[in-house]
Amino acid sequence: MKKIVRCEAVMQPVGPYSLAVRRGNFIFVSGTAGWDRDGRVPPDFRDEARLMYENLQAVLEAEGAGMADVVSTTTYVVRASDYPVLNEVRRDYFPKDPPTSAVVGVKELMRPDLTVEVEAVAVLPVRRRRMVAKSRFQARKRGRTTGRRR
Questions:
Q1: Number of structural domains, the chain?
Q2: Rounded to the nearest 5°, which phi and psi values hold at 41?
Q3: Is the pLDDT of residue 54 over 50?
Q4: Domain holding 46: CATH number?
Q5: Does residue 84 lie in a domain region?
Q6: 83-94 pLDDT, tens digit each
Q7: Range(s) of the domain holding residue 135
Q8: Alpha carbons 32 and 56: distance in angstroms, whole number
Q9: What SS3 state is found at 67?
Q10: CA-CA distance, 63 to 51, in Å (whole number)?
Q11: Quick one: CA dihedral 111, 114, 17, 101, positive or negative?
């Protein structure tokens, strides 16, 4: 079953879509822009990119995930000349083992003052504790404690 992820710390969707959806251990984050909760966009690209990643982080944290859980991103950039700055900012948020990435140059985003947007997929670690406990229970039920037959 899918779960809609809610996060009051960021600008709310401006259309009929969710900020993010969780299905099992996967979290799919919609296109996230570099604007504040009131829809204001910083005039500097670097600040806009930072705010974009801060917003992504807030949405992930609302579901118990973090930037280290991101496995893939697709970023849309209006000006290809901003790509080097985007990479500098990105390194701050993904300093180790960065996710896969695609960067797409686009003519424009949904508002003329936006110049960068990212969508992401994150995967939460699988909890193995319940599986181990269940295996021990099943072994006891069958009369085995170590996996050997008596």
A1: 1
A2: -110, 130
A3: yes
A4: 3.30.1330.40
A5: yes
A6: 999 999 999 999
A7: 2-141
A8: 6
A9: helix
A10: 19
A11: positive
